[in-house]
Design brief:
Elements: H1 2-36, H2 38-63
Helix pairs in contact: 1-2
Length: 68
């Protein structure tokens, strides 16, 4: 039974390392876009903001959340 709980305790560490790995690899992929020129940096930031806004509003609508 002790081995079971040790194994279950490893999953949060795995999840955190997986998420950090994804963010780091995406950051390394996007980083060169910020240093090419100002237009590319502005377009990249605008695109990322648009993606996050789309996800936010889509999830709010799907979950039925409202401000009132």
């Amino acid at each position: 039974m002790q081995e079971f709980f040790e194994n279950v305790a490893r999953y949060p560490r795995y999840m955190i390392s997986l998420i950090l790995g994804i963010f780091i690899s995406v950051y390394e992929w996007i980083k060169p876009l910020f240093f090419k020129n100002k237009f590319t940096a502005t377009a990249t930031i605008g695109f990322l903001a648009g993606v996050f806004a789309f996800l936010y509003f889509t999830l709010r609508a799907m979950l039925g959340l409202s401000l009132v």
